[in-house]
Design goal:
With 237 residues, the protein is an alpha/beta fold. The protein is 43% helix and 17% strand. It has helices at 19-30, 50-60, 74-84, 100-112, 128-145, 176-187, 210-234, and strands spanning 6-12, 37-44, 64-69, 89-92, 117-122, 157-160, 191-196. A 7-stranded mixed beta sheet has the order 3-2-1-4-6-5-7.
């Protein structure tokens, strides 16, 4: 399959215990809609046997490809996935949090709106602390970059290949989602937000903590200060 309708990028970090169930459920859901697809598994600095599990999935299913993403980092895995994607639509998502039904709905929404970008707007957080931290970050990003979007980090995110500025994202960490939204704003890409109401996690533990949250808060400030002068041109604030 040289040019599927959509490439689905799934970074995998310490998900050996549940990634097989996720991918097989995705395949079952995707086979119910009129779309050709590839699922690209980007094993991202995992300390378990995620690599062998993902390779087993690639051996079993012709729609699945497996890659080792290096160096580690959510953003780096997304960037590597985009670089190798072959689809006319490109999707990336957090597989630990995205249900098959949510992925299916987001793709159908993207097919129905071929010139638009689709991003999730997750309405529910599993704790008050996460709700508060998310609210602060989203308000900060909206103020710094004049964004109208909520849930900066929400996935799935789906974009058509003709939105070419998104093919060269530069962030290698969690700030890639902010960069994605800022590029959409700067280039005038139409963004449609898809409300998601589930807070279920398939397995594993979130890597977000106060330390990583503080890094995102300060990273957003740094990105804003140097965006127009050198960030987008070099990716090195």
């Amino acid at each position: 399959m040289n040019n599927p309708d959509i490439s689905i990028i799934l970074p995998a970090y310490n998900q050996a215990d549940h990634i097989s169930n996720i991918v097989t459920a995705y395949i079952e859901a995707l086979n119910k809609i009129p779309v050709s697809y590839e699922i690209d598994l980007l094993v991202n600095g995992a300390k378990d046997n995620s690599d062998s599990v993902c390779q087993g999935l690639a051996d079993e299913y012709p729609e699945v490809r497996m890659f080792i993403s290096s160096p580690p980092g959510w953003g780096q895995a997304v960037r590597n996935g985009i670089a190798g994607a072959r689809g006319n639509l490109i999707c990336y998502t957090n597989s630990a949090r995205t249900t098959p039904q949510e992925l299916q709905l987001a793709i159908l929404y993207a097919i129905a709106n071929p010139d638009s970008i689709i991003k999730a707007n997750r309405k529910i957080r599993e704790s008050f602390v996460r709700r508060l931290g998310s609210l602060i970050y989203n308000l900060q990003c909206r103020a710094l970059f004049d964004l109208s979007y909520w849930d900066i980090n929400g996935t799935p995110k789906i974009f058509p290949r003709q939105c070419s500025a998104l093919l060269t994202l530069k962030s290698s960490d969690d700030l890639i989602d902010l960069e994605f939204n800022v590029i959409c704003r700067k280039f005038g890409y139409l963004v449609l937000e898809l409300p998601i109401f589930s807070a279920h996690r398939h397995g594993g533990k979130s890597t977000t903590n106060w330390k990583s949250a503080f890094k995102m808060y300060t990273g957003a400030l740094k990105m804003q200060r140097c965006w127009d002068t050198k960030y987008y041109n070099t990716g090195k604030p």
